[in-house]
User: Fold this.
Amino acid sequence: MGIVEGFEITGERREQADVLVIGSGAGGATVAMRLAEAGKRVVVLERGGYYTGLVDPLDPTRPGRGELDQREDDMLVRIDGGRGLVTTRDGNVTLTYGSCVGGATVHYWADSYRTPPDRLERWAREFGLDGLSEDELRPHFERIERDLNVHPAEEARYNGCNRLFRSGLEALGWHGEPVPQARKGCVGSGYCMQGCAYDAKQSMLVTYVPRAVRAGARVFADCEVERILAEGGRAVGAAARGIDRVTGRPSGARIEVRAPLVVLAAGGYGSAPLLLRSNLANSSGLVGRKLHANPCSMVFGLFDRDVVMWRDIPAAHGCDEWRLARRDSHGRYLEGGYLLMPNQLGPAVLAAFLPGFGAEHRRWMEAMPRLGGTIAWIDDVETGRITLDARGEPRYALPIAGDNARMLRDSMKKGALLLLAAGAREVFLPDPLGTRIRDERDLPRVDTVEIGPGAMNFAAPHPAGACRMGKDPTRSVVAPTGESHDVRGLYVADPSVFPTAVSVDPSETILAFSHRLADHLLAHAVA
Amino acid sequence: MPRPHAPPPEPPALRAHPITRRGFLQRSAAAAACLAGAGLLQAGCGGEALPLPPGEHPLVLGLADYGVLRALCARLVPGGPNHPGAIDLHVPLRVDRELSFHGERLRSDVRDALRLIEWGALLTRLQRFSRLDARAQDAELEALARSRLAVRRTAFQGVRFLVMFFHYTQDPAWAGIGYDGPWVARRAPAALA
Assistant:
């Protein structure tokens, strides 16, 4: 049956399944694959479209449709949620998330970290997450790493920016190492963020989704779930509408899926709004609250020779020296609290972040080959919130304040130091003034630069917490099994359930939680 | 090999403007006043527009708002002897077409931003932005970028983001910036084929 796309769906359609999975990213695809391979009837509803590169993911002996065409505008609108233009209410943070078959794994950088043990211990200690220790997750991590060919980035795939980043680390004595990569046969085109045209990046689009389909799962693309259906305190399915991919508007088609188990995996920005619209699972009042998102700072360096940051692996080498925030004896923030990585941007997004306009901006663009940069995902502690407006559309708030702001400023300082240590002639910030840092004496400028709305924009690619997991139903939305405290048969399988940010790229954590959930469903829940 | 391009000039030193709660409220009130004022001016003055080139028909923006966007594009990415500007690459139409895919929230944000830029100039330069000469327009854009009012900065940066993105995503814009472009051919998705 393959994957049914929106333009193939007309009128009203009803489906029956053992399990309905909402979303086909890391969370949803994993559960769908595992249950389908166990012989269960699985239906997947995906809001976004189905796009392929040079190879057909469902049959690698056949050519693909070539829609992953490496153009920034084409790919932003095809694979990114909200066509890449969703921000918080104040415009200070851009929400980066996937909306296509394969979800955010289609645009992710393939960084594949296991959940740090200190984070698992914290979740167990503060939120009662049993069964999620390092030892208990290890078999899942090992399986994922086999399935996705996770391995340290090879030297041959380091680009100029990665090599400079590593030399800066070595000069400063900060710890770093090759970033584990989920890739097979990478050709180094550098279009990871636009979706790999070569199926080399081991996204869900080319791994777990095809396995799920081959095992009999039915995947419906371009289908937006409007509400989850529940009867008598139990989930029974969902109602969705077809989306016309040409206009982005409802096509008129409708699909209702009835299933005794519903696995919600609409993503860290998508699952909470769906629960709020469905008026379900919110006895704690916490749905949409406690939102983390890893907002990230960027710093650019101008070098005397070509760097060419747009080719090869985006972040082949990472710095974990500052992963955990350092605090004084009173708990006051001192420094750190982020992963520091090399950056990779194409010309269109780079142009949007470079300072100035007119002739000044043009000079920066003409220097593009000599630009390198760092990006830092902060382990945000000040939480935001997802609400619905009068039309039922989600609105997002994320504070760039308090320790979040302190971490962002500190990460820009460390990024600047690193780039200078790597030999940058000068470093500049992406604020309207293009604040320059030529040596350590300029670092205090970072303390006073305006970082509020209209001055800087922080992409936030790793949402977590809006349907958080915990033992106590008054302090969490789902139980440690992943099942809603309120609605039987309703599970959440995406980063919404993480009680806090993960402090590293969350993809492998999402996958591991979903494998664990699949084990639970097969052992206890699914008929 | 080092390239001959000189880095841009050093910007003036930045002053710190810590945001207090009271300051935030003042800014919010000022923002609301600015937006309301811009909207009233647009309505009261009819927002008559500069004539558009033949065949240029926006889908979403009214002619007055579109004219402001066009004026902004001309200053944000002016063309040069060896590279096209945003007007040459039809960026105003591209931005307008993108808005047609979005809901009313983003559309009204962009309209508000354009009106704030257009009519805000009346307060500072006694003329609407689109009627200023190029030098005065550049000065007004500098002032917007450095404004202490978040709403003015946000209006400018929001439009600037769209214009820069939709200019530099186009193949002809890569002339002279050293970017060698994608390795595969452009392809329309199956639903559009």
Remarks:
- The longest strand of chain A covers residues 234-243.
- Chain A has a mean pLDDT of 97.
